[in-house]
Amino acid sequence: MLLTEKEVLVDFRREVNASNRFMDASGARCEVLFSCSTFAHLNRGLIAAVESLSFAKKKIMLNIVLFGPPGAGKGTQSVHLVQSYGLVHLSTGDIFRSNIKGNTELGQMAKSYMDQGQLVPDDVTIKMLESEVDKHPDAKGFIFDGFPRTSAQAEALDAFLDARKTPVTCMLALEVEEEELKKRLLARAETSGRPDDADPAVIQKRIGVYKAETAPVAGHYALQGKFTGVDGIGTVEEILERLKAAIAH
Ligand code: AP5
Ligand code: MG
């Protein structure tokens, strides 16, 4: 049975509305773009109409802010998310540590803050993060691990990504209670060589700074409807599955 042009339009719009956002094989978000002018020539059934259209596929980057207090498992989970989704992992803590190792000017400056459990100043951190993002023009997306950590950083990240038309997709916040965080960090101190893990007073300071300066950043993304809390207790695999479910949602 042949449909009228109007019926085809109505059916097709319903179909597109139901399916215009989906994950492709790599896990990147894709969006189907279509041209209404094509409809002028349609007078066939819906399936034939859909097949006859030329779809343009535009990649939408998957930009995840992986959030949580010190020791929540951001770094651990990032490794797995990178494998699953082919994203670029940017950990501001790791970048600072690599600068400390290389004894750069930035590293020397950052060390004085990190060893005390304090945040490195916003202007330096934002500039560093932006330059790291720009090193990956072909990225499918990013995992921001440990950034943004202040409201000023969140605003800077939004403005920076908006200018590149690739906003933050979601903030996934690993939720772990304080006693478990301390236990994990003290255990890691045995092998990590991180001065900020070795001293319980510095761990306490990091947790305090998180509560005072970083936790409010969750509200920034909640207001945008992008915040999801994820239970960070369990095996690494269990938590990874929760994160993947939140990404797919
Ligand atoms: P950063 O390096 O980001 O440290 P952090 O946020 O304090 O967090 P961690 O890296 O210690 O923990 P994590 O959540 O990555 O957990 P992980 O997977 O390692 O920052 C360090 C410093 O740099 C800051 O204090 C600040 O000075 C500076 N800095 C960084 N970013 C900044 C910014 N944006 N602005 C200003 N300053 C900045 O896991 C921890 C341990 O737990 C590991 O041993 C792991 O094996 C274990 N573990 C992981 N998952 C589990 C699990 N499910 N069960 C049991 N154990 C687990
Ligand atoms: Mg980390």
List the bound ligands.
BIS(adenosine)-5'-pentaphosphate, magnesium ion
Radius of gyration: 22 Å
> Which CATH top level class of the largest domain fits?
Alpha Beta
Which topology of the largest domain does CATH recognise?
A: Rossmann fold
Ends distance: 37 Å
Principal-axis shape: globular
Unreliable spans are 18-43, 45-58
The main β sheet shows up as: 5 strands, parallel
Question: Which structural class matches the secondary elements?
Answer: alpha/beta
Rounded average pLDDT: 85
**What is the assigned CATH homologous superfamily of the largest domain?**
P-loop containing nucleotide triphosphate hydrolases
The string of secondary-structure elements, in order, is HEEHEEHEHHHEHEHHHHEH
Element layout with pairings:
Elements: H1 5-19, E1 21-23, E2 29-33, H2 46-52, E3 56-60, E4 64-67, H3 74-85, E5 88-91, H4 92-101, H5 105-114, H6 122-133, E6 142-145, H7 151-163, E7 170-175, H8 178-192, H9 195-198, H10 200-214, H11 217-223, E8 227-231, H12 236-248
Parallel strand pairs: 4-6, 4-7, 5-6, 7-8
Antiparallel strand pairs: 1-2, 2-3
Helix pairs in contact: 3-12, 4-5, 6-7, 8-10
Residues 74-75, 91, 93, 146 line the site of magnesium ion.
What are the main properties of this structure?
249 residues; Rossmann fold; binds BIS(adenosine)-5'-pentaphosphate; 8 strands; globular; alpha/beta
Structure description:
- By secondary structure, the chain is of the alpha/beta class.
- The chain is built from 12 helices and 8 strands.
- A 5-stranded parallel beta sheet has the order 5-6-4-7-8, with helices on both faces. A 3-stranded antiparallel beta sheet has the order 1-2-3.
- Helix 3 packs across helix 12, helix 4 (92-101) packs across helix 5 (105-114) and helix 8 packs across helix 10 (200-214).
- The two termini are 37 Å apart.
- Bound molecules: BIS(adenosine)-5'-pentaphosphate and magnesium ion (MG).
- Magnesium ion binds next to helix 3.
- BIS(adenosine)-5'-pentaphosphate (AP5) binds next to helix 3, helix 4, helix 5, helix 8 and helix 12.
